[in-house]
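Hey L., structure's done. Input below.
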Amino acid sequence: MHATLCAVRDHPHVNPFDFRGRLQRAGAALLVAGADALLISHLPNLRYLSGLEATAGSGLLTGDGRLFLLVDPRYEAAAAARAEEVGPDLVHPVATADVSASTWLASRCASDGIGRVALESRVLTLHAARLIEQALAAVGWSGALIDQPLDIVEHARRVKDAVELALLREGGARLSEAARGILADGVARVGRTELEVAADIDARVRAVGFSRAAFDTIVASGPRSAFPHARPTDRRLEAGEVVVLDFGGVYGGYCVDLTRTVCLGLPSAEVDRQYHAVRLAQQAGIAAVRPGTTPADVDRAARQVLEAAGLGETFGHGTGHGLGLEVHEAPRLARPRPEDAAQPPLEAGVVCTIEPGAYVTGRAGIRIEDDVVVTAYGHEQITDVPLGWPTAH
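Output:
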């Protein structure tokens, strides 16, 4: 067990995250980007900077690293606790029961002479943005809103520190434990419905210590396995067919994710060839993970294997995604899109999935997924579950 994780468990009242450092680094990055303040609308970003766990709220981060937590009465006590723990010089709770967040923001910008406010435009709704504009106009504010996505907090979240890595490694070990039991016990077996299998998987994920599932568990059988993100139904599993099992858990606030594909009996020659092509593609993708490699390079390494096998057109999604407070976060390991800014190369501390797939309509879908950490000299796989056809006989 990692020493850092032991410290977390032995002293549960001590929060091990360096929130002060996170706030100060984010504030400095904000100034470098040419903004005086950042309106935080994305709740995982708010949690990363302050530790506040909430289903609603926002924050204003200033260039000197101060964070104003704008919360309704449900989270006033929680926000006050975060200020006490992180430091009242940096975290300032703001109750919004009697004043809207946009009105408070406008008043603050006017009183503090804040001239350039960046918005998290990837997540801020158009309605909320218009309310902010109206409130700023009402106080005669003459500054500027920066609506391009600066991704300042997301960029900071991309590289995990020692505490985060310890939690993710432990999460990977626990998810692997659950997965090995799921495969060994034949949870996905003939006659059970997809919903029954999913419920069993979710129970086993919680039983090994996860607070919740990281996402809605995917159980896709037979022809439905060719739908990459199929949701479980009351369809009963049948002999000889393929079943995709994609599940994850949240451990200490951090998400891990795993996929295995099983066959309920002996696979056909075509399906077996499809499976082994995906397995080789995943191996190539994992082998490409190291510092200095771009996310697109990793995707290309996996994709080329499937293209060589004549399955390139059956792989429509990216090879992987970052893991952290969210189950899908930076980096995005996929083919670059025209509208995307260039992603930085991988660096030590990035944690991501490698999950190529091949989906042949009317035949079968195959996906294999594991989690890896980029290390100083290469990578470390943090999930450990047998490959092959686990339920074949």
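The longest strand covers residues 242-251. Residues 161-381 form a domain with the Creatine Amidinohydrolase fold (CATH 3.90.230.10).

-- N.
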